[in-house]
Amino acid sequence: MPRAQPEVDSSSSHPPHLLKRRQACHQCRRRKLKWSVGSIDLTELPESSSQLSDAQKPCSPCVKSHRFASYSNPGLLQTGPECTYDDLTSTPVVKPRTKYQILENKIRELESLVGQQSKEKESPSAGPSASTLDPSVASTETPRDNDPLDVPNILDPLLFPSLEQLSAMSELQTIDSPSDHPGQQLVISGWPTRLPKPDLFYHLVDVFFTCYPHAHYILHRPSFMVSLALPPKSPDFPHVSLLHAICAYAGVFSYLIKPPTAGDLEKIYRDFIFGDRRRPDSKEESFAEMHAKWAEETASQASVMGFNMLECVQTLVILSSFYASQGRWVELWSTLGDALRIAVPLGLNTRSGFRGDGTAHSSDSPETLLPNPANCVEEEARVNLFWVAYANERLSEAPGSWAMCLDDQDIHQLLPGGLSHFEAGHDIQGARQSLGLPDVLLQHPPELTDGFSLYIKATILISKTKSFNLRIRHKYPDATDVREVPEFYELEQLIASFRKSFPQQYNSPISQTARGLDIHVYATHLISQFAIILLHDKHANLYSPNCQSTRKLVAAARAILDLMYTVCSTSYDITRLPSICVQCWGRSASVLIRLYKLEISRGNQEEALAIDIEIQSIRFVLNQMGSRLPMALKYDKAIDFELEVKG
Fold it and tell me: Where is the Xylanolytic transcriptional activator regulatory domain (predicted)?
């Protein structure tokens, strides 16, 4: 119990000394009484100070209160007054100057400890390479050890930890810390826990916009970066599925992330579609694959609930490109179909303000799940997003005989305009082109034309070619030679005219932009040759010297080979090209293999050797790309398999 100071004469002229904090009893403190020491005539004090604690046990106010209470309850006379105090005897009173000295000593001890640890960190030590960053290290965790310190305790020198305790805590923190490099930083409140730390994530965003061919078209970068700077709990912060998809694609190209491996192709390549599913290898899940899984998971959850539908389509479009780069065909075809299927109820296949049947959109009975775009930037982003999803699906499924997900006759969306208008946020004035217009593939208005618009038109050409191949024999079941029907001739002329209609600045496959090589222009030149192969491949007779389809087929294959030589002669990183480029090179090699086997069967060794050099050139490029893109290695394995099979 705290003891009171010696009594002071009540008649003294000195004012009463107030007790220190917590020295009065609990009962007086609850009554909010003032207290002092000494015997004071209570009748001479103001009303507010009529009762003062004297720090005795029991104190005089508690004695008086107990006496008054006994008048109405005589039983209280058998007990003493309730008067309790804080037990402060274990905490000695420290003078202010002594506190300062203790704090100064602690500061000096901490400075010496920090200096000692700095010297230890400067010494060379083996650490994990940044290029082999583990996914668990890259992801953000918020440990409970980072709770804020108790402010009253840290200011009390008697409760401050000793130097030995601080040293032990520091060693433990160093061991448990997932990252001990200079980029370590505080975690943003609400930052998604499965995303990488903000510094690594912003690096991946830069890589994504640099390496993903369509990044600047499906995302308006200025608006996206503004939304990314918002608090993570803001409703305008990008949906986490989109951010995971960005991490997945950028994880293939970032020098800070170990790219996914192709696995054991000797076990899976002969089962080209389901090989990696029916014979899974034991390779560890990479950073990119993990984020792709999380992106698909969160996008599916949001789609079921009807949230962030547009961002979910963006996620699926990016994931389809990621799966294509990895040669994961099952996930690719599933994602491509989902993206186009979701695009229809969102109204992305038709122009803004109209329903699927062409009538005006009514706010009373909306048929689309998305509201009208808020501005021209959002409207153009939807246009570009649909056409990228369309192009991915058409180009990936072009060689097969499977039906396409969305018929061209049900597409009424405007064709994309120039990227410069979109990035500047300017509305495109004047008439826009659409798929249903005649000669849309041959007319290229300068204000609406860039590499991307030509790329989309080349994709439409592929779509027309595949539609012809799928339906022509059902339309003419008795035709002996499909090449004699009018539709075949019209399509062949359209392909040839499309290549000749390019604006002058896009006649060369190597076109320079502010960001380097215009990959869409290069891909357009490849796709125009790819369309010729798709049209004539089923009708070519390599054993007939007069077969026009054979001549055009081989010419297109060698034109694709020349385009490969052209881009490889530049300093451009060919792994950043769209996946259709690898597909075209692989198809060119397949045509040349058939020609190679024909020359071998005829005994033309010189011609066969020249063709073999062309095939090996394609395989060399595919193997070079395979260090980053497993898709290229799988195409190379497919070529190897074709060479083994007897023709």
Answer: 332-422
- pLDDT (average), residues 361-380: 79
Structural domain count, the chain:
2
pTM over 0.85: no
Backbone torsions φ then ψ of 52, nearest 5 degrees: -125, 135
Residues 6+ apart with CB under 8 A from 91: 158
- 């994931």: which residue's tokens? 319
Q: Strand, coil or helix: what is 422?
A: helix
With tokens 């005829």, the residue in question is: 602
Residue closest to 212 by CA, chosen among 238, 240, 248, 255: 248
Residues shown for the chain: 647
Question: Contact, 329 vs 273, CB < 8 A?
Answer: yes
570 occurs within a structural domain: yes
Residue-by-residue DSSP string for 499-566 = HHTS-GGGSSS--EETTEE-HHHHHHHHHHHHHHHHHHGGG--TT-TT-HHHHHHHHHHHHHHHHHHH
% of the chain surpassing 90 pLDDT = 55
Distance CA 346, CA 482 (A): 39
Q: In the structure encoding, which two tokens stand for residue 244, read together?
A: 């995971």
Residue 209 has pLDDT above 90, yes or no: yes
pLDDT at 5: 46
Mean pLDDT of 554-578: 97
Report pLDDT digits (tens) over 329-353. 999 999 999 999 999 999 999 987 6
Instruction: Report yes or no on 465 lying in a domain.
Output: no
The residues near 613 (Cβ < 8 Å, ≥ 6 apart) are none
What DSSP element (H or E) covers 37?
A: none
Contact 407/542 with Cβ under 8 angstroms? no
Task: Look at residues 152, 157, 166 and name the one whose alpha carbon lies nearest to residue 110.
Answer: 166
pLDDT at residue 611 in the model: 97
Residue 437: what residue type?
A: L
Q: What angle do CA 148, 153, 159 make, to 5 degrees?
A: 125
Q: Which 8-state DSSP code applies to residue 360?
A: B
Final residue of a structural domain among 41, 57, 92: 92
66, 92, 118: which is the final residue of a domain?
Answer: 92
462 belongs to a structural domain: no
Once rounded to an integer, what is the mean pLDDT over residues 594-611?
95
Residue-number span of the structural domain to which 28 is assigned:
1-92
Within a domain: residue 586?
A: yes
Task: State the pLDDT at residue 167.
Answer: 47
